[in-house]
Amino acid sequence: MILAAGRGERLRPLTDRTPKPLIEVGGKPLIAHHLERLAGAGFDQVVVNLAWLGEQIEQALGDGSSFGVDIAYSREPAGALETAGGIIHALPLLGNQPFLMISADVFCDYPLDRLRSRPLQGLGHLVLVENPAHHEQGDFALDAQSRLVNGAPAFTFSGLALLHPALFHGLAPGRLALRPVFEQAMENESLTGELYQGIWSDVGTADRLAAIRRQIAT
């Protein structure tokens, strides 16, 4: 599932007319990088959630055949449902097996086939990265068994994870952030993680967008 429903407030006015997933990096939209890499890793069914300017995303991607995948769209009400709310809304399209979740507004070269072939222990496996300058406090730490815990040193959640639908069972539809869902699962020792040290950028501001464009160009 590619999370593509966000408003992109910090990139305004650029995102007033262009949804953030269609902003170009390296000569193609951010979401196109994800779709090409997903297809290359063996994924053939993709769910994309839509809200802000979602019709532009659907028009650009179509049914996904040009990328080698089959896309199903999960359309959300105006204002979107936040991350966990969007996943809950899309559960009927996701089925009963673990699924890959990736945020459309990150650029990352993590080898996605690694998650496709990974046996899931518990309810989720998160990819963490070294803390960027804009998020120095990080999100989660890892214990000796690679389980997610609160503590130090903490790393930043990359926006990439392998999740089981059961992680969201019993949660009511509506607006809901992902962090509280993760916190509850962590209490039950149900989440694992890993630290990835390759290319990663949260393309959330004009400065970070310019930086990743320079990095890709060189």
From TrEMBL:
InterPro entries: Mannose-1P_guanyltransferase, MurU, NTP_transferase_dom, Nucleotide-diphossugar_trans. GO terms for molecular function: transferase activity. Residues 1-114 form the Nucleotidyl transferase domain. The keyword Transferase applies. It comes from the Bacteria. Pfam families: NTP_transferase (PF00483). Keywords: Transferase. SUPFAM superfamilies: Nucleotide-diphospho-sugar transferases. CDD domains: NTP_transferase_like_1. NCBIfam families: NAMPUrTaseMurU. PANTHER family: SUGAR-1-PHOSPHATE GUANYL TRANSFERASE. This is Nucleotidyltransferase family protein.
